[in-house]
Amino acid sequence: MHKFLKIVWLGVLLLSTQLTFAQQSSITPSDTTKPTRVITTTGPVVVNETVNQVPAPKPTAERNELKYNLNESGSHFFKATFLNQAWLQFNQSNPGSTVIGVPKDNTLSIGLRRTRIQMFGQISDHVFLYFQFGMNNFNYLNGGFNQTGSSNRKIQAFFHDAVSEYIVWKNKDYLKIGGGLTIVNGLSRFSAPSVSSIMTMDVPVFAQATVDQTDEFSRKLSLYARGQVGHLDYRVVMSDPFPIQTNGAALPTYGPNSIFALKGHNKQFQGLFMWQFLDKETNQVPGYNTGTYLGARRIFNLEAGFITQKNAMVHLAAPGDTVYKNMNLWSVASFLDMPLNKAKGTAVNAYLGYFHTDYGKNYLRFNGALNPASDIAAAQRPGGLGGTQGNTFPMFGTGSVVYGQFGYLMKRDLFGAGNGTLMPYVQAQIANYQRVTSTLGVYNIGLNYLIKGHNGKLTLDYQNRPYYEPSSGTSQLSAGGRRGQLTLQYQVFI
What we know:
single chain, mainly beta, Porin, 16-stranded antiparallel barrel, three-stranded antiparallel sheet, 5% helix, 51% strand
């Protein structure tokens, strides 16, 4: 018993020592000893006490990025971004449109225009790595439902980009050589748009000239060189296009009108050259072009670009007479993104471009973003073309296109500090195609509510477009009237 009491006493003594040490060690270097007044009936008496003085935390700057520095200076880093664009879409459908077998004149639908994850970084002074994973045009039809089959709603996401890049000169943008699956394209700035920063609700998709035909949502397996030398921003690309047989859609048939070739395989060559008169644009992420800097930079560019591919297109001049043609596309354009009043935060954004689009004789393809209709009645197919239901219009074709947009950024904190501002815009695509008898005009008017710049914004957009009717005895298409579409987008980006 005596031995047991000694052990208990020793344990209590050790525990007491530990508690005393813990209390003493809880006093940090910022703790100070200062006099404290104790009030008594006879007057104040000063007593010295140890008092914990915890300094008020300093306010920290809010961060808008998820970035891990690989060195102390931050010049080597790895970063992740996330983007979600949700659409609420009311559409007046083209005549004859059906939704899962039922005729519908209009639709109200909810969808995801884009959901993306980017991961990229400067691994060393000479090495840059870029990945993008995500999905597009995901609504209740899951991008592929029709009356003769179905699609799988669980296989929409895929790798958009997987690029490795070598920076030839340290800390210089003169020359960067890269390769992989990439959106580094020629033709125009909107052939490789940074969709998180666009001013309009959606990009002019016609500028992504071969989208989902011989590429993967505008990405191709490519080897490229790009960079900035003085005022010149350039990129030249050799691409290995995909055969149209792998795009997941029904194959086009040979006829008098041009289609993408079903035989043969040739490399595609592209280039884009921009002369930057004022500030230089960002050049870090391979290929992508900013939509608007919201007045943060003074940008005025002139650009010219091209895409060419030997024997990319084919048509029948006569039964059994197969004619292969080169695909030749080029454009010239100007781009302005400029602050007007820095104190107020106002700015302007404008783009005007001319596109020459030669896909071969009478080529024409309809397309519509996040199409809410699944099919169209056979009797309503203009010129026998498929894919003309819902909100589609002749987006791609042999001929020429003029595209323009204009937007005005209103004053900073229009609705009070931290409550954001507005940016209204207008947008127009005017085309003359060989296979369409009259000038095609698609017009948009919209309003951005920039809650937190591009990181959080609401966009309300109205689009007015033509629809086309069958023409008996000819492959030419004539406009039958016009339809409208009202879309509300909520974008969150970090």
